[in-house]
Each structure stands twice: as structure tokens, then as C-alpha cells.
Amino acid sequence: MASIPESIFEEYKQLVAELNQHNHRYYVLDDPSVPDSEYDRQMRALQEIERVYVDAVAEDSPTQRVGGAALQSFSQITHVLPMLSLDNAFSDAELEDFERKVKDRLNQTIEIDYVCEPKLDGAAVSVLYRDGLLVYGATRGDGSVGEDITANVRTIKNVPLKLQGDNIPEILEVRGEIYLPKAGFDALNEAARAAGGKTFVNPRNAAAGSLRQLDSKVTASRPLEMCAYSVGQYQAESTPSTHQGMLEALGGWGFKLNEHMETVTGIDACADYYKRLAQRRNKLPYDIDGIVYKVNQLALQERLGFVAKAPRWAIARKFPAQEEMTQLLGVEFQVGRTGAITPVARLQPVFVGGVTVSNATLHNRDEIERLGVRVGDFVIIRRAGDVIPQISKVVLEKRPPNAEPILFPERCPVCQSSVQRNEGEAVARCSGGLFCGAQIKEAIKHFASRKAMDIDGLGDKLVELMVDETIIFSVADLYDLDEKRLVGLERMAEKSAANLVAAITVSKQTTLAKFLYALGIREVGEATAQTLANNFGAIEPIAQASAEELLEIDDIGPVVARHIVNFFRNPDNLSIIEALRNAGVRWADIDLSSQDSQPLKGQTWVLTGGMQIMSRAEAKDALQALGAKVASSVSAKTNQVVAGPGAGSKLTKAESLGIPVMDEAQFMDFLSAQRQ
Ligand code: JCF
User: Fold this and answer.
1) Which sequence positions are flagged as catalytic?
2) Does residue 376 register a pLDDT over 90?
3) From atom 9 of ligand 1, which residue's Cα is the shortest distance away?
4) How does pLDDT run across 22-47, given as a tens digit for each residue?
5) Residue pair 227/157 in contact by the 8 Å Cβ criterion
6) Does domain 433-506 match CATH 1.10.150.20?
7) Phi and psi (nearest 5°) for 653?
8) Where in the chain is the domain with CATH 1.10.150.20?
9) Distance CA 49, CA 62 (A)
């Protein structure tokens, strides 16, 4: 046996110390300081050293102990049969390794049946029943001694207090996972944020923390669930011969089992199950961190036995981690269209949740304070599902001495105007308005977007370039652009310059509603813009309306009314509107005095199938201008359906409800009749 070189021994001692520290934080305090992925990596490094230098294995190595001691605040429960953990496989190759060892040990060549199930990310528990009545619930603790959490377990709605069905065992110890579904986790954290309290890093910590409440009323208020996955102590007249049979018996006695549990034959089928579940991972209502495979035949399980703290008949195939540690390199403050300033974390790129992440949102100033994060800190990045990556925690133990506090800017990073924050609002805003380059860019992007002025070919990058090159300063300048100015720009050929100028010219003909929306008044979306257009008919009365007058309109509340009044009080905004009109931007005012101006007021229309003469969007505009509401589904309240070729279920439904239907040609006739 090789004796261990000094430098490796130093590294080894360091790993033992760090892993013991992580274990303490994780198992004893329910407050881990590093993500699982980091823990796993250190554990593997340690195991590798111990494999090569067997004589060097330290007495206090985590491989010799697994887990921490039970907390003193709950009384202790000794597990008659130890609560096992699972070995991990991080690749298909490691899974095949597992299967080869199983077969070798059993001296078996025929295929083995495995029970597959998602590995829930919660807290392991043992729940004991005597003659069908719940006696105690215990945490796993260090695997041999756990905490008595009976009062808390009793509050969990899907844990039976009394077993149901037949053949109830004299003694039944059920093992399973207690977890918090994603929705419950989000709600819990939202409430904590609103109350200025501490949030949980992930659903697993929230579940473990909820179970460790000394006051069971707190536990009762958390939407915890338990899912049963195996049996510990068991005394009964008969014993099933398979793991699946045992689980089915548990289901019969009233336990929740995982709905995706499946028994398959052979390791290839296991790998296939993994692939199927990996695709559904983000859509499941709870966090899972891998797949558990168990040899189905209990007789084979017995022959395989255990090694250290894990069974030889089971393995967990891990998914890519959803949490990783990385370093915060800096914070940038982005300025949005309405001046809202959002801090964005620049990170040392890290692979998490299946993608490389180099930015994460920090939301606002409160979030920075809540996290207590500094530039240079090591942070835990969480990317669950398709949501924006978040910084969930700072690893204080690793804070470098030169870590710098994050200063929220007093002045806009783009235009140097003062930053203001309204009473009761979380967002801080640049006060520069259309003097601010960032707000100008965002305003022009919005103005040109499809649902606004719909300027084809004027993308975000081009807008930024034109503002940076000081070719345009406001939306009004778009209408002064000519091909000569554009051709000088990077990657702008003559042909695309000509196309852009043409698209800008086409955009001059618009509708009042689109124009109002394009102005980018705060809180005025498409629907509100349409409502304003229908009620006022022209822009002047809107610009002159008081907040009180605006409030008389359905769907317009005090906040929107304020924003509208403020917008039209600002002389800069008025001169931009003036300039746009002078440049030839125009729309048809809606004649409110004439009875017929909105002949479809109060009606709901539905457009379905293809259209050849008009686009769907144009048809919608035309109907809205006549006062109709355009809905996306047919109901008894629908007044008229316009059906083009290929119309399907909506047409069928309209016919069955007896709702009038017209085709596109009839629709065109109808529209031209309205215009006369
Ligand atoms: O879902 C789980 N986290 C889970 C953990 C599922 C299992 O079937 C387990 C487990 C831990 C140990 N089985 C064992 C033996």
C-alpha cells in the first residue's frame, strides 16, 4: 500500500474538515452552506483519496460516520433498523457499473427487475404504526438516531393517522420523503418577502425547516406532503415477495406513493426511464434531484445486503444540479423603458440546471439588502425550470477579505439624473425620462414593436446603434431618416436601408389605439389604449382629460389615470406627439357624435381559420375600431364568428350554439358597408 504524500494528506485533512462542517450545517442545523453539487464533488475527491491510500482514512472522515447528531431540542428516537442513504450514479456508465456489480454478486445473467421512481427533494422520515395506529414520526438524523417529530408529522394531511384496508400488520414502519411542492414553496417565500422575513433557499430546506418547528401549528400551516418509498420494521402474517408488492400494500393502507413509480426489466429500461423523467422534470409540481432504482425481488435485496450506510440493491441516478456555487464578479444596473433600475449580477459562468449561466437578476435594492451580498462573494445560483436564475444565498464562509458592498446608484448609470424611489414601491427609477439614453432606446424599441407602430426591420440592436451613433434622439426622428444616413451604419446595406425607410413610411398610417399604445405611457397596455381610443375618439380630449374624467371609464383605475395625466402634462411628450403628426403619422379619429360610429359596441366577435384579403391583426383592428370586443374562444355570449378556410373546433362550436357565421368575403362586404 502506497504511503500518502504530504501534499495529498494536507488536501485530505482539509476535505475531511470541510465535509464535516457541511454535514453539520446540513444535518444538524438544516442550513447548508454549499450546494449539493459542491458537497458531492468534495465527497468524491475524498473517496478517491481514501480508495488509493486506505491506511490514511481518518477516524472522523464523513465516510465513517455519515450525517450528524440529533438536535437536543426534540427528544430522540433510535431507529431499530438503520435509515439508509443511497449511493449516487452521475452517468449512464456508473448506472451500468451498479448493475454489473449486482449481477456479479448474485451470480446471475438473466435480467433483473427494478422499481424506478423520482427522487424527491425533501426530508426523509420514518413513521411507525402499531396495530394500525400512528405511534411516532422521526427524522432520519444520522441514520441510527433521529428526532421525535410526531406532533409535526401528525399535521401532514396525507400521512394516515390510522391505517385503512385489510391485513394490517402488527408493526409497520414506513419510510418516505416529506416535501413541499413548488407552489407551496413559492407562496411561503412570497409571504416571507412581503413580511420582510427570511426566505428559504429551496423547497428541501423549507420542508426540513418546517418539520423542525417546535410549535406544530407552524408546521400545520405549511403545505407539506409525504410520499412513502419503503418499509423498515415489519411484523405481519404475510410478507410480499417484491418491493413493488410492498409498495402496493402501502398504497392500500393509505399512503401516497409517487405517481410515476414503475417496475421495469433490465438496466437499459432504467436508463430510458431516466430520459423520460428528465424531460418532465421542470413540469412536475415538486423538485426532484434524480431517479431511484431498486432491485424488485426482496429475496435478491436480502442476498445483496448493505455496504456501510447504503444498500447494494439500490442506487440514485442524479440529474444535473439546479444549484451551483459561483462567484459574483460585479453588478450592473440596467435602466428600463420606464426608468426602472434593475440590478443584474454578473457571474463567473457556471453550468446549472442544464445551461451555462453568467447573469442573474437581483430584482431591486431590498433584495440586495436581504441577501447581504457583496461583489466578490461566492453565491448559490438556483435555476429551477425555465425561470430566470436567482441568487438564493451567499456563502459567508467563503467571503474574500476584499469583498465590496454593493452601492445602489444615486444617479442613473446612463444619464446621471437622480434616482428616485416612491413611497411603498420596491423599484427605484431614473428621473431622466426622455433625456435618458437608456429610456430613449427602450422607448423607441417599444414604439417600433409589432403591436405598436409595427416598423418591420427595426430591431433592438439597430435602435441601440442608431441612438449610440446619435442618428436619432427620439421616436420622432425616425421619420426624418433617409437611406443616406442609414447606409453609413454597421451592417446596413443599401437594400436593407431602403426597406427600412419604406417600412417607416408605411407605419405612418396607424390607428389611434396603436398610436396611444406606442407612446409607452406607463401602465397603458394594448387593451387600455383601445379603451381610451373608443371612449375619447381622438387624442386631444385624452391629453386634456382630468384624472376624474379618466376614472369614469370602466377599466381605468386611479394609478393608470395618474400616469396618463402626468404623461400629457410633460411638454417633452407633447412636442414629440406634435413632431410625429407633422412628420405625417396619422389615424382616423372615431366620430363619437354619430350614432353609427361604434355600431358594434357591446358585441363580441371571434375570428377563426385563415384569412386571405386582410391579415388577422388588421381584421381585429377594424372590428375594435367599430367598438367590438374580439375574443379568442366561442361561447354563448359570442355575437358573430368570421370563419376562414381551415376553421375547426371554434366553427363547430359556433354552429352548435347557433351563432351567426360569415366568411371573409362577407366580412369584407360588411366592413365596406360600415364605412359608407
Ligand atoms: O425520494 C427520495 N428522496 C428517496 C430517498 C427515495 C427512495 O426510494 C429512497 C431514499 C433514501 C433511501 N430509498 C432509500 C433506501
Assistant:
1) 119
2) yes
3) 229
4) 876 775 455 778 888 899 999 999 99
5) no
6) yes
7) -65, -40
8) 433-506, 512-592
9) 13
Compute the 3-state secondary structure of the chain and give helix, strand, coil in percent, each to the nearest 5: 40, 20, 40
How many A from CA of 257 to the centre of ligand 1? 12
Q: What confidence score (pLDDT) does residue 490 get?
A: 85
Q: Which of 117, 229, 263 to mutate to test the pocket of ligand 1 (most atoms within 8 A of CB)?
A: 229
What proportion of the chain, given as a percentage, has pLDDT over 90? Answer: 64
Decide whether any atom of ligand 1 lies within 6 Å of the 292 Cβ.
yes
Q: What is the DSSP string of 506-552?
A: HHTB--HHHHHHHTT-TT--HHHHHHHHHHHSSHHHHHH--HHHHHT
Find the mean pLDDT for residues 73-88: 92
Asked if residue 289 has its Cβ within 6 Å of ligand 1, the reply is no
- Tell me the one-letter amino acid at 156: I
Distance (Å, whole) CA 521 – CA 569 = 12
- Report the alpha-carbon distance of residue 42 to residue 44 in Å, rounded: 5
Q: Which ligand 1 atom is the nearest neighbour of the CA of 118?
A: 1
Centre of ligand 1 from the C-alpha of residue 228, in Å:
9
Give me the mean pLDDT over the 316-340 stretch. Answer: 94
pLDDT per residue as tens digits for the range 476-525: 999 999 999 899 888 889 999 999 999 999 999 999 999 999 999 999 99
Its pTM surpasses 0.85: no
Grid cell, residue 141, equals: 438524523
Residue of minimum CA distance from atom 2 in ligand 1: 119
Cell reading at 6: 504530504
- Among residues 282, 232, 24, the alpha carbon closest in space to that of 124 is found at 232
Of the listed ranges 67-81, 107-121, 552-566, the one predicted with least confidence: 67-81
Q: 84 CB less than 6 Å from ligand 1?
A: yes
Ligand 1 pocket mutation, candidates 230, 258, 270, criterion most atoms within 8 A of CB: 230
Question: Candidates 3.40.50.450, 2.102.10.10, 1.10.150.20, 3.40.50.720; correct CATH number of 512-592?
Answer: 1.10.150.20
Q: Whose CA is nearest to atom 8 of ligand 1?
A: 229
Mean pLDDT of 447-452: 95
Summarize pLDDT for 659-676 with one digit per residue, the tens: 999 999 999 989 888 876
- Nearest residue CA, atom 4 of ligand 1? 119
